[in-house]
């Protein structure tokens, strides 16, 4: 079979035109699609510079704050000290003999009922039959303020008798209180010494006769001052 030359030429031309359904993409377009987009440095967004953190300055505590802190620390230390002392006392009591612990219970009963000096309490416990060592052990460990005992004793004396200041100190010392305990108690007691002089003058006149000067001398002998004695005698009617 002989194909005409015109047909061959037509087929060749058709092949050179390519697939009609897929148009040829221009080279410039292909290059644009395949190349990734780049941004120039001038076009990139600027990153904000980090801001410096402001420096926080610690404020110096005020004098009131320092004083409050010192007071709180002192209170805490005192509480700890008291706790340690209480534990040591409890351990010491627990280590005592049964006789010593009985003496301690007796001592607690006595000071709960009346006012005692330490010496007076030891004497009372010994009078009850406790050995001297056990009586002293109990008096050392009984929980009591001897200053408060002296004050209670002073107030008790003034309830039923009249005393000058120095006379009351002597009486407390006679009961076994130390000079310091007696002085402190007499300073704390609420009393008018001039009225005590008047009360003492009246008591003397109930049992004996005195001249004015004689009664003043007697009151001064009891420890009242000149002014207190004169006031007392005058109020008693002399």
From TrEMBL:
Annotated region (Disordered), positions in chain: 16-75
Domain Putative host cell surface-exposed lipoprotein Ltp-like HTH region residue range list: 99-140, 146-188, 192-234
Superkingdom of this protein's organism: Bacteria
Biased composition, class Basic and acidic residues, residue ranges: 55-67
Any one Pfam family match given in the protein's UniProt record, by short name: Lipoprotein_Ltp
Positions with biased composition (Low complexity): 33-54
Protein name: Putative host cell surface-exposed lipoprotein Ltp-like HTH region domain-containing protein
